[in-house]
Specification:
Length: 474
């Protein structure tokens, strides 16, 4: 038994499946689990290929592992079993073809076209996938691979970047030829691949591979449209190059949150690790935000007497992000999060010259950017670090001033997330009764003003708040 086979046999989901299925024939471990074991990685998710109906197999595993089973795809005859604590996941799929050999011949890449019988015999590797792994190559099983499922085009970039593989030349040529079809799969399927690529270990290489395979213009035309859009003197790169630099600096910030967040580094790490939506963490969403923050610049570029502006690109970007997310069928939560990052990414930069900020200005920023205050502040750091031109906002002094303000604002934003805005000294109905007001815009404006005054410690009691409100009304 090889080291990889031993590692596979010891993986908890494999142990569970063998225990639950009692040595049944016609069941194979296939795809990613075999690949991960061969690479020396932990096997957490398991794919089983079965001859026959996958439902009873999935249900048997769920019973044995106290998990939950459900039909994942009727079209592809796939069931999923998930642990109660989500520590493992097992997909069970009917064979594509009459035999396991036929099934492997329908898979995407040779590194995933390897199967091991569940009872533990030697691997079945008809396309030399294990050898390709050793050579560091990503190669399609057949010339039909991308035509059979164009989503595999995105997977090629994701696998190559995530597993540190080189796309085999013939596979790269085939991908470029089929690239116009990359937008055909359902938007939510494209989003899954983009999430895994951008949230993976090397998103910059992944995006570079999207470019090399001709996929960016098809799947993310808004990003492709940033190429060649020249900027003003504060920038040394065009908008596309700047965007890639912002993503690179976002990754740098992730790796060194103590440097950029000061004593709140651990809290920021916990924030970025939080699940957000669409199986995406806030950290992965921040990477997406880095890619999309300047998406409105091409439509707003203006030049007069050699001076370049992008007035309103934050607001225009919100609409463009909405269109992009709609195409990818992203959830409302993710869409709004990315739109908020785009809308507010300039706000802190406009406040740097006012530092140290009065508490009212801090409150204004936190209220306006809620609930992405900390996230977008991190984005502004990456944005500022990526502006290295000759203009006044690109000097070392200007950049350091921004970093100082951002560090303080991160602390305030984390406090705001934990504590929320100040508990009102007066409820709306109480204020309305005291002042003889009906519900409406004036009451809302007074309540907002009282919150700001309370945050700034200008009012500290119910009586002071009421007196302040009366004074405002004259």
């Amino acid at each position: 038994m090889s080291v990889a086979t031993e590692r596979l046999a010891a993986a908890p989901p494999v142990v569970l499946a063998r225990s639950a299925l009692g040595g049944q024939d016609g069941i194979w471990i296939a795809g990613g689990a075999v690949r991960d074991a061969a690479l020396g990685r932990d096997v957490v998710d398991l794919d089983l290929a079965v001859a026959g109906d996958p439902a009873p197999v999935a249900k048997a595993i769920a019973r044995a592992g106290a998990g939950h089973s459900f039909e994942l795809s009727a079209e592809f005859a796939t069931w999923r079993v998930v642990a109660a604590d989500h520590d493992w996941q097992i997909d069970v799929t009917a064979l594509r073809g009459e035999t396991i050999e036929a099934d492997l011949g329908e898979r995407d890449f040779t590194i995933g076209a390897v199967a091991v019988p569940l009872d533990g015999d030697d691997p079945l590797d008809p396309f030399d996938g294990l050898a390709d792994l050793e050579r560091g190559l990503l190669r399609t099983v057949s010339e039909r691979s991308f035509a059979a499922d164009p989503l595999r085009l995105l997977r090629a970039a994701r696998f190559a970047a995530g597993l540190e593989l080189e796309v085999e030349p013939a596979t790269a040529a085939l991908a470029r030829a089929e690239a116009p079809r990359a937008g055909e799969p359902a938007g939510e399927r494209q989003l899954v691949e983009l999430r895994k690529l951008i949230g993976g270990p090397d998103p910059l290489h992944g995006i570079q591979l999207l470019d090399e395979l001709g996929l960016t213009a098809v799947v993310l035309p808004e990003l492709e449209g940033l190429r060649g859009v020249e900027q003003g003197p504060n920038h040394h790169l065009d908008v596309y190059g700047h965007t890639m630099a912002v993503l690179a600096h976002t990754l740098e910030i992730e790796r060194d949150l103590d440097r950029f967040g000061g004593e709140r580094g651990e809290e920021l790490r916990a924030l970025l690790d939080e699940p957000l939506a669409d199986e995406m963490s806030r950290g992965t969403a921040l990477r997406f935000g880095a890619l999309l923050h300047d998406i409105g610049k091409p439509a707003t570029r203006s030049e007069r007497d050699g001076f370049v502006t992008f007035v309103g690109h934050d607001r225009d970007g919100v609409e463009i992000v909405g269109t992009l997310c709609g195409r990818l069928r992203a959830s409302r939560v993710l869409t709004r999060h990315l739109q908020d990052l785009t809308l507010h990414h300039l706000r802190l930069g406009f406040m740097v010259h006012e530092a140290p900020l009065p508490l009212r200005r801090v409150h204004e920023y936190l209220r306006a950017t809620d609930p992405v205050g900390a996230d977008v502040t991190l984005l502004t750091i990456a944005d500022r670090l990526s502006a290295r031109g000759s203009g006044p906002f690109a000097t070392e002094e200007a950049i350091e001033a921004h970093l100082r303000l951002a560090r303080q604002m991160l602390a305030d934003a984390l406090d705001w997330r934990r504590q929320g805005p100040p508990q009102p000294l007066l409820r709306g109905d109480e204020l309305a009764a005291e002042l003889g007001l009906a519900e409406g815009p004036e009451l809302g404006e007074l309540l907002a003003e009282l919150e700001a005054a309370q945050y700034a410690s200008e009012v500290r009691s119910r009586e002071e708040a009421l007196a302040h409100a009366r004074a405002l009304r004259g």
